[in-house]
Amino acid sequence: MTWALDEIAILYRQKGPLVSAIEGHLADANIPFIAEKDSAYPRTLLIQWLQDCAAFALDESGEILFESLVRYYHNLCYAAGVVDSRPNLELRTRLYDAVVAVIDSEQPLALWLREVQERIDLRETLSRAPEYVHDLEALTKMMSEVEPGGPLQDHTITDFATDAKLTGKVVVTTLHSSKGRQFDAVVLPGLVEGLVPSRRWNRRDRNYPEPTPASLSEDRRLFYVGFTRARKLVALVSAASYVNSIRVSSRTWRIKICWRNPHASWGMNEVIRVLPLSQVSRWDLNCRRSREKI
């Protein structure tokens, strides 16, 4: 079974040597990928949809289908309770007029975003759909950044649209950034005690203390987020040990870390199945079952 590259996501907890190694191996194997940490824009479904809208407005090749834009917008309006279960002509017309209201390809991004928001009442609609709260927060953050004085004040609609072109590239992003998104196949690397779940090096005591209940709960939640991003397959990658770099007295030491009883003390065996490094475990997910939306 194979998938398009843009339907494969490698999700990690935080940047580090593991992620750098993964990106290096992808590059060596000539597998195109996008490291989303390099994006200037928030990675939520709404922002990606707006990027697709911008690409549709600028692109005459037909790469972005208007029906895909309508589908997301209708789902949002339906969640807000402002439309029926099927998209109507009024909804399609309103969205089309808003999206194509482009002066030129170098139009300031702030101007285009304000125009789209006003024409389709985007902010009001988001505020009436509780499950889109993260998208509303992302939109608010980005609008503040594209206004004069913000870090994105010089960005154009073209900058915004071309950043979204992920077609044919494996997605390498954080577990946090994957919220609300779906891929056919998801790879969760680094499932070894000390990474996921995490232990932080204590410089004063020179050891890895036991995690607090709060941090352990957060690690479990993040693992659940990553696992449920997959439509069809999840690949879990683990090992009995890993190598870490610790800086002590102006010197960097590379230390092999191996826990005597991996996962047992944390109860993570209920969530993570420990696998040999040479194996990848696969689970076919039942896509028809209901899932908690994260």
Plain-language structure description:
The chain is α/β, with parallel strands linked by helices and 294 residues long. The chain has two domains: 5-32 and 169-284, P-loop containing nucleotide triphosphate hydrolases (Rossmann fold, 3-Layer(aba) Sandwich); 45-163, no CATH class. The chain is 36% helix and 16% strand. The chain has a six-stranded mixed sheet, with helices on one face. A two-stranded antiparallel sheet has the order 6-7. Residues 246-294 have low confidence and may be disordered.
Which sequence of SSEs, written as H and E, runs from N to C? EHEHHHHHHHEEHEEEE
Given the structure, what is the number of helices? 9
Strand order of the largest sheet: 2-3-1-4-5-8
Structural class by sheet pairing and helices:
alpha/beta
CATH class annotation of the largest domain: Alpha Beta
Distance between the termini: 27 Å
What is the CATH architecture term of the largest domain? 3-Layer(aba) Sandwich
CATH topology assignment of the largest domain: Rossmann fold
Strand content: 15-25%
Cα shape: elongated
- List unreliable stretches of 5+ residues: 246-294
Query: How many strands, what sense, and barrel or not for the largest sheet?
Result: 6 strands, mixed
- The number of distinct β-strands equals 8
